[in-house]
Amino acid sequence: MSSHSYDYLDGNAAAGELSKIFALDVTAAEGQCAHCGATKRFAEAHLYMRGPGVVARCVVCEHVLLRLVNVRQRVFLDMSGMTYWSLDTSLLHQISR
Amino acid sequence: MWRPGTVVVLHDETATARTITLEVPDWPGHVAGQHVDVRLTATDGYSAVRSYSIASAPNTEGRVELTVERLANGEVSPYLTQEVAIGDRLELRGPIGGWFVWRTQQTEPIQLIAGGSGIVPLMAMIRSRVAAASIAPFRLLYSVREPGAVLYRDELEALSNHGQPVNLTYTYTRAVPKDWPRPPGRIDAALIATSTWPSNLVPTCYVCGPTAFVENAAGLLSDYGNSADKIRTERFGPTGDRK
Q1: What class, spelled out in words, does domain B110-236 have in CATH?
Q2: ipTM for the whole complex
Q3: CATH class of the B3-96 domain in this structure
Q4: Distance from B27 to chain A by nearest Cα, in Å?
Q5: Is B94 an 8 Å CB contact of chain A?
């Protein structure tokens, strides 16, 4: 692992912010890194929340997976670091709100 | 979607940690391990949001218990551990998170590893296991600074006595009880080998604590033969409140 600074959390911690946009919990979804191709749960990503927004990085190659920034009444979401998400709807059904 | 919750019970767990029980009308229910976002809004409109793990087992009474550790430089935790009073209303968003959870249908061995207040979501899993009368075998390795910092001590003792469902190992990082066999220190490979499930039983592992703690414990579990996809982690940051 290339990162030795402990200033990140897990993708889990973005669940609240992402719930403003998505109807289902997406932190349990599997996503593929567009850079290295690793397929992991979004909850396993390294999450950086110190800046003006949220940045999720691949746990394998540290490439940016997702960026989410709130500016006044607008949310910017960049998911170009992931090729796809795969969601288990049987699990999501139990905890969807 | 923010829901109002009313504080109905306050209970001091240690000198710095308090459990807040909230009654939340229309609470949709939660799964053990999930968290909520709590929003506090000052009279001038300034608001702060922090994430806290749910300590209580899923229930049908619309009650949510949060255990909050006071952080010296925290913005929200001093309020929640010292100022908040019964009858106060807090805003909650959640339950949140579908990965760091234990469901009552799971029957495989469960390895829990907590650092400090990282015990909170793991306690929800233990309580959920008890409430559901699950037969899943649970082990908990609980690392704290010193004996006085243990959360839920009496309840854990009752649940880990002979014949009870949880196998419990304490470890201390700064000060140990009298005649404790292991000097204070971080979790190491030897402790993992003696206190966690053998990896050939393929336990699901849940590790929660500060980021450096989780990094160390998850790495040791992996070195001990547990595969990465069986190790679920929840980190919280070294500064500020949980988030």
Answers
A1: alpha beta
A2: 0.81
A3: mainly beta
A4: 10
A5: yes
